[in-house]
Amino acid sequence: MKKHQLKLSDIYLELKTDPKSGLTTDQVAALQEEKGLNKFDEEKKDTAIQRIAHHLKDFTSVILLAAGFIALYSAFMPNSPKGFTDAVVIFGIVILNITLAVRQEMGAEKALESLKRMTAQMTTVIRDGKRQTIDAQELVPGDILTLESGDMIPADARIIKSSSLKVDESILTGESVPVDKDANIVVRENALLGDQLNMIFSGCLIINGKAKAVVIETGMTTEMGKIAGLLNDTKKERTPLQQKMDRLCKAICVIALISGGLLFLLQSFFIKIDLIDRLMSSVALAVAAIPEGLPIVVTITLAYGVLTMAKKHAIIRKIPAVETLGSASVICSDKTGTLTMNRMTIQRVWATGHDPVDAQKKFNHEQLRVLEMMSLASNATITMHDGEEREIGDPTETAIIRLLKNKNIEKEELDHTFPRVHEIPFDSDRKLMTTVHKLGNPDGNAQYISITKGAFDRIPIDADSVCFDTAKTIHDEFAHDALRVLSVAYKYYDTLPESMDVDELENNLTFAGFVGMIDPPRPESREAVRIAKEAGIKTVMITGDHAATASAIAQEIGILSEGERVITGTELATMSQQDLTAVVRECSVYARVTPEDKIRIVQAWQSHDEVVAMTGDGVNDAPALKAADVGVAMGSGTDVSKNSSDIILTDDNFASIVAAVSEGRRVYDNIRKVLISLVPSNIAEIVVMILGFLIWKVTPLAAIQLLFINVVADGIPDLCMCRERLEPDAMKRKPISKKASVFAFGMGTRTVVAAVVFTIVSMLGYYIGSNFAIGNIAPSEAVGMTMAYITLAGASVINILNVRSFNKSLITIGFTSNKLLFGGICLSLSLVAATALVPGIREVFHCSPLSLFHWLIMIFMAISPIIVVETMKWFIRRKNPAAAAAPR
Q1: I need a labelling partner for 340 at 20 to 30 A (CA). Which of 265, 321, 615, 688 fits?
Q2: Contacts of residue 771, Cβ cutoff 8 Å, sequence gap at least 6
């Protein structure tokens, strides 16, 4: 049997403890040796050296390192004409890429440290028959705890006895209302955590009352410890972009190896050159295949997205999450504090003899009187502290006082006018609270009023009265709307009764009315859900709250539609993962779920290749936040949830998620544009190197020229592409599938066409420079290599103008509409020209002086990609006129 079902006597026997004297010192020492301390295991983290080593194993880094060492070896060869420039440039690129990657990753996970800080530092126990205050880490199963209001519970425990005990379990279960605990209640075997009313759990807070309890579990075996274990065991999936980039890089690396190997074999069989020169040429070709600047450009583009999102109240903890959120197809959202206000609020009030009234409307005397009596029978307060309101006490009571303040009535004034002379505290058995007050303005002969507040079914009303039938009907209407009902009744006294006990004060009452309250949806939630739906994103509610409450909120904000299912944690417990995966698309609301259930739901969606975003703010959300493709925590949430997340919303606004999604889509689109800009030049470089050797027995481009094109010439304008605006239709199209290639939707064709044009103009440049005398410059291999390099570099840089729009003409968009990009293109072209014009630099880049006519020919060939692509766009628009009108 489970601990919440066992008799207390059986628990004492099993744990070898005594409820009066507790454990002995020897027992504690033995148990600490056996069970360990009451703390969480720590997750081992990679050191900076390990992170660097991991990135050095990356194939791109290996190729570049090989090229660097060959260049370095060549520089040390006797009588070598080569200097150290090539080696320095190559090693510099490797260092820059790894530095950026490691700095990004050094934001280490801190979830377990936060969980440790949540454990109470000191607690009171009974040991050796004496009350002692000890470090909470020293607790062991069998210890007898004594707890009171305000205490943080240090371990999972079974209640021995309690008085008016209320516990805030929202960080564990997600339920926004404090739970009434009772040592004597009988709990069913399969009861969920939120329904185990004879148990208290580590990390939760005592809101009201006192308790004596026996420790059942400590450390990693507590419910909070299990969450810590889930955080350790849950592995973060690579983002969709990372997966696509991995596949692309593998393909590029295979091409690089094959191309380099082919060139090495061709040089070995057809011409006689030194081994070092053959290796350098082969490695240069491998370098040509790899877009070395791509990791830097992607990182900077994502980083700019981080800055933009910060202005929209979203702090990015892990840079790839920017793009991942843009690809999200499912948002699994916690209810409490995310979709709702996390603040109980009165929605409707009913006073006997009147119709129910919405809380926002003007109240009559009887309706105000219901609120005033409830306020007098409440112990909560709302005070001002440093200009901000601070609510202290039970959330249902603070809801009463808040509404009263909105009606311009202060609780302090009521308390002064009707001073309290007696109180019977709330009891979980009675579910009632009674207070007695002296009347400031006596009504007739009455001098005192007794006010009883509590559950509707516990306040004695004559079942034969008309009032009962009316009250029952209205109560059921409130309950149908998932409103939590709190009732109030009263009794007048001329003098105080001799016995002010329950039997006297809580019988023969006059029923006054009740209020209906709920933790309401955030005002912006409905619109955010609608926009998400329009963008092809399904919103799913996952909560620890009751099914009726969750369903009402979900229907109100548009999450739950007709025909969609609501599933409880009890139902989930009977379903296999395969069964859940089969029905997950039909379910929009999950209620009374555990942290393990949340992970199962996320994984069920992921098994359908959906990109899942999970939002939440409590400890119970942390494992699922980590398991999701992107975890979104609320800024006001626990440190545990924030440190397990990828993104933190500083304004706790669900609508900010939608804004973050749109920014993510902008970033993803811009990264695709960068790829479509970079890859054609890499393909062209490979073809030019191999065809050039087959035709002329030389490689038309040098390694340092290839690196300069890939990193500097292409890199500068591509970095500026991060500022390209959001496509107007971005939030009206479906999310891009995980399986979709970055070259999908016609981008592959565009890439091939550009690569063919680059190859033709580059080869033509080499042929002209090496075969024709122009001006006073004689033809030579050096002139041909210079023309091939300048033409390819210029065409590659100018091509970025083509990728700004898939259908619209560049003339329509405007050359300077993205001023930063236009400036980057001008700067890049200037630097390319400088490598061929400036003495000293020209020699480093293996360039030769050229005439004005050479430059005019190269300029014409460099702009040819714009002519070709603009012609393609014209044919697309002519074939499909809708494409011309469509947003770019």
Answers
A1: 321
A2: 779, 784
Token pair, residue 239, equals 């983002």
Q: pLDDT, tens digit, for every residue of 390-445?
A: 888 888 999 999 999 999 999 999 999 999 999 998 877 788 999 999 987 655 56
SS3 270: helix
Average pLDDT rounded to a whole number, residues 572-586: 94
Comparing 299 with 151, the larger pLDDT belongs to: 151
Question: What are the backbone angles phi and psi of residue 587, rounded to the nearest 5°?
Answer: -105, 130
Measured CA to CA, the distance from residue 510 to residue 423 in angstroms comes to 18
From the number of C-beta atoms within 10 Å of its C-beta (0-12, 13-18, 19+), residue 645 rates as: buried
Distance CA 784, CA 771 (A): 8
- Give the SS3 label for residue 631: strand
Q: Which residues pair with 491 in a beta bridge?
A: 450
Q: Which of 86, 334, 427, 646 is catalytic?
A: 334
CA distance linking residue 187 with residue 4, whole number of Å: 7
Q: How far apart are CA 437 and CA 492, in angstroms?
A: 10
Per residue in 634-673, pLDDT (tens digit) is: 877 766 677 778 888 887 777 888 888 998 888 888 888 8
**DSSP code at position 713:** I
Distance (Å, whole) CA 357 – CA 590: 31
Q: Which two tokens stand for residue 312?
A: 């929209």
Task: Confirm whether 334 is a catalytic residue.
Answer: yes
Cα–Cα distance measured from residue 285 to residue 289, given in angstroms and rounded to the nearest whole number: 6
Backbone torsions φ then ψ of 317, nearest 5 degrees: -85, -30
**Using CA atoms, how far apart are residues 170 and 164, in angstroms rounded to an integer?**
19
For 674, the token pair is 């960068």
H or E stretch at 63: helix 59-76
Closest to 211 in 3D by CA, of 269, 150, 253, 164:
164
pLDDT tens-digit profile of 35-45? 888 887 765 66
CB 618 within 8 Å of CB 336 = yes
Q: Check: CB of residue 38 under 8 Å from CB of residue 139.
A: yes
Average pLDDT, whole number, for the chain?
A: 84
Distance of CA 108 to the CA centre of its chain: 16
CA nearest to 630, candidates 263, 320, 307, 394 = 320
Per the structure block, which two tokens stand in for 600? Answer: 């199962």
For the beta sheet containing 510-518, the strands, ordered from the edge strand earlier in sequence to the opposite edge, are 357-358, 345-351, 510-518, 484-493, 448-454, 432-438, 420-427
CB 630 within 8 A of CB 618: no
Fill in the DSSP letter of residue 336: I
